[in-house]
Amino acid sequence: MIGSYILEISYILASIFFIVGLKMLSHPESARKGNIIAAVGMVMAIVFTILFHKKDGQSIGNIGFIITALLIGTVIGWGVAKKVKMTAMPQLVSLFNGMGGACAALISIMEFPHIAHGGEYATMFSGEVLNILLGLVIGTVSFSGSMIAYGKLNGNVGDLRIKWLRYVNMGMLLVIIGFIGYIMSLGTIPPGEAMFLVYTLVAISVVYGVLFVMPIGGADMPVVISLLNSFTGVAAATGGFLYQNQAMLTGGILVGSAGTILTVLMCKAMNRSLLNVIVGVFGGGGVAAEQGEGTIKEVSLGDASVLLSYSQKVVIVPGYGLAVAQAQHLCHDLEKLLEEKGVDVKYAIHPVAGRMPGHMNVLLAEADVSYEKLVEMDDINPDLPNTDVVVIIGANDVVNPAAENDPSSPIYGMPIIKAHDARNIIVMKRGMGKGYAAIENMLFFNDKTRMLFGDAKATLQKLVADIKEL
After folding, report:
1. 173 three-class SS
2. Cβ pair 129, 115 in contact under 8 A
3. Strand pairing partners for 121?
4. Which residues contact 357 (CB under 8 A, 6 or more apart)?
5. Options 379, 397, 455, 466, the catalytic residue
6. Which pLDDT tens digit goes with each residue over 326-343?
7. What's the predicted TM-score (pTM) here?
8. Is 378 a catalytic residue?
């Protein structure tokens, strides 16, 4: 009896640790500590469950297998996290998220046979069955969708651009809902037949998860990652209801609600509805603007160094190209060097820059860039007309004026960082390649724009050296 009280108290404490940890994750300076606090809460919930959980008076069995699995998972997770590059972080997030969805689905599959009474019949119409089936579907969709998202981010899977596929996806969603209703309407059936129906539901959900993500273009991947993350949280919460485990329930609710809120905020940042993201053509389905509308002008390293050194206000716009080049530390060196010369330097952060939510914030935090210098899009845009130079490093669609002045563009209506309002614009790129939306960036042809071609890391290194010599 005392053990059950200890277990309940440990779940309450673990839930508090989750909430405090999540709150601390909202600021880069406290994020690392918040992550540790949340991890301690999870360790506490696992350890106390192993020690004190009982069912029908029996303690948990197979302790050796459980501990071995925990150790193997810890070693693999630790090793992968230590070795992953910042450019591969979105893929890692998708992979880990998919594993969470798979776990939730496996819980439902393992627990479903336990609803059989006397081993002869299974009662389908119950809240417990509904909870299991919802966890099964949501977890499976999260798993298969996350694996496709991983493939897209890793460059192994392309977009499936078929207009009628959206109707197939909507139809499959209705089929899944109808199939759940059908299973629950069967009353009592043999367990073998019940499990056949469950595996059929798993197969349909896997296909739906794949087709759900396949049409979504690269520009929308940050939203998709966030949405799939919320799915995993909801699936975990259904497991919490199933086991009446407060820690699991709290963790699932926090992940699900945080992912949902972030998804809504990112859709708002792009001025699009979630339905439009899921069935739209954003990120590769539009017609690219013609290149012949302007002339590309280049700038030498020497001229760029002089321009930056004698400016009063400089704004740096980071993008995924900065992460690919692993140039965040050199970017910070440029910032510090310019500040020594009396230049006011800030970073303009677009909500969907990079390949996952907060990608640029994490990237620059890794280089010890002060959080106060990271200015969100809505706050930096009013200052850009008074900015001497905007330096764009690896960003593309998030500064494309087509979002404002080209109604035919697939990104029309998406809020952007208004780099075109600055007095001078320097764009660092390898070449004239397009961004995720696969359309031309007309900012490159602006009279105020100068292109500085080359690898971002090598270019920044030379730029820093030149400025030091001035």
Report:
1. helix
2. yes
3. 117
4. 222, 225, 226, 262, 266, 351
5. 397
6. 889 999 999 999 999 999
7. 0.79
8. no
